[in-house]
Amino acid sequence: RLLTESRVMWFYLKLIITPTLSELGTYHDDIAISSGLLSPITTLFSVLGIAGMLILSILSHRRAPILGFGIAWFLLGHSLESTIVPLEIAHEHRNYLPQAGILFAIVYYASHASETQLKTRNLRYLAVFCFAALMGVITYARATEWKDEWTLFNTEARNHPNSVRSHTALAVLYNDNKMYPEADKHFRLAAELQQTEVETITRLAQFELERNGRVSETTLAEIEHRISNYNYTPVAISQFVDLLRNAKKHPESHKIVTALFEKLTDKYKGKLEKKWQLAVYHVLATSYADLRQHKKAIEYYILSAKIDPRAYYYIRAALLYADLGDVPMADKMIIIASDKQLPLSDTDIGLLTELKNVLAQPSTALHKKRRDRK
C-alpha cells in the first residue's frame, strides 16, 4: 500500500498542475498496485521524489519559506489517507485541501518577486492567467461530463476501461433502464477485471437471477471458486445477502445460494465484528427456515442468541422445534428465555401466540408422531 501511495502522490500533484480529462474520474480503482520498488519501476522514482520533496521543504524553510510551506502542506494533507490507514488507494477529493499548499506557492512566486525579477513580472502574470483559464476550461468540460448519468458513466468506463466500479455503475444504469444485453456485458466485464473478489461475481449472479430466474452453473462455480480461494470484505457479505434475499423467490437457486453463503461466512467465523456475525446468523437462520431445514435454522437462531440474547431467537427456535414435534426442546427454549428474564416485544408476544397455535394444531409433526405410536 505504501509503495503504491508513493505513485499516487505524484498522480495527485499532476492533477493539480496539469490535469487531463482522461485522467480525471469518479473512481480510481484501476491504479496498478506496486508489489516492489521495481514493480513497476516508477515506484522507486516516486519514493525518491517524495523523499526529495521532504528534504527540499526542510532545507528551504529560511531562504524560500513559502516553497517549504507549500510542499509541507501538500505532504501533511495526504499523511492520513495516503499512508498506512487501509483505505481505498485513491480518490480525487482527498486532493482538495492538500492542493492549497501547492497553489499558494505557485501564486505567491508568480506575483511576488525581487527587484531583479521585475522584468519578468508581466510574463509571470500572463502565465498565471493562462493557468487559471486552462483550469476553467477543464472544469467546464468535466462539469459537462457530469450533466447526466448516461454521459458520466459512459465517460468513466471509456476513460478508465480497467475500473471495476465504472463498469458496475454503467451496468446498473443499463439494467435500471431495461437495456439488459448492455448490462450483462458490463457486469461480466467487472467480474473479469476483479477475478479475486466475491462482490463482482455476486452482482453478476444477482443480475442473472433477476433476468432468468436462476443463476448459471458457470457463475455458481466461479462464486464457489472465489469463496474457497480468496479473501473478501463485509461489503461482499452485504452484497451476498441481497442475492440471498432475491434467491428466496426462486426455489431452484435458493438452496444452492444459501449453501454458498454459509460457506462464505464459515471461512471467517469468529473473525467478523459482532454486528456482522449476528446479521449473518440471522440471515442463515431465516433462509434455512424458509427451506424447511429446521435443524440448521435452529442452529443459527441459537448462535444468534449467544451474540445478542433476545427472546425473539429462542421463540423462533421453539417454533421450529414444535414444528418438528419436539415439544420438550420447544419448552426448553421458552424456559431459557424466561430464566434469562429477557424482555418481550410485541413481535415476541405474537410469536408466542403462534407457538401455542402450532402446538394445538393436529397437523403438527408432534400429533403425527402420536398417531403413529397409536
Please describe the topology of this protein:
Elements: H1 2-17, H2 42-59, H3 65-77, H4 99-111, H5 121-145, H6 149-159, H7 164-176, H8 180-193, H9 198-212, H10 217-229, H11 234-247, H12 251-266, H13 274-290, H14 294-307, H15 311-324, H16 327-339, H17 346-360, H18 365-373
Helix pairs in contact: 1-2, 2-3, 3-4, 4-5, 6-7, 7-8, 8-9, 9-10, 9-11, 10-12, 11-12, 11-13, 12-13, 13-14, 14-15, 15-16, 15-17
Helix content: over 70%
Average residue-wise pLDDT: 90
Structural classification = mainly alpha
Terminal residue distance: 71 Å
Please tally the helical runs, counting DSSP H or I stretches of 4 or more residues: 18
The helix/strand series, from N terminus to C terminus, equals: HHHHHHHHHHHHHHHHHH
Shape: elongated
What proportion strand? under 5%
Q: What is the CA-based Rg, rounded?
A: 30 Å
Number of strands: 0
Biggest sheet layout: none
Instruction: Give unreliable regions as ranges.
Output: none
Description of the structure:
- The chain is mostly helical.
- It has helices spanning 2-17, 42-59, 65-77, 99-111, 121-145, 149-159, 164-176, 180-193, 198-212, 217-229, 234-247, 251-266, 274-290, 294-307, 311-324, 327-339, 346-360, 365-373.
Give a quick rundown of the structure.
The chain is mainly α and 374 residues long. The protein has helices at 2-17, 42-59, 65-77, 99-111, 121-145, 149-159, 164-176, 180-193, 198-212, 217-229, 234-247, 251-266, 274-290, 294-307, 311-324, 327-339, 346-360, 365-373.
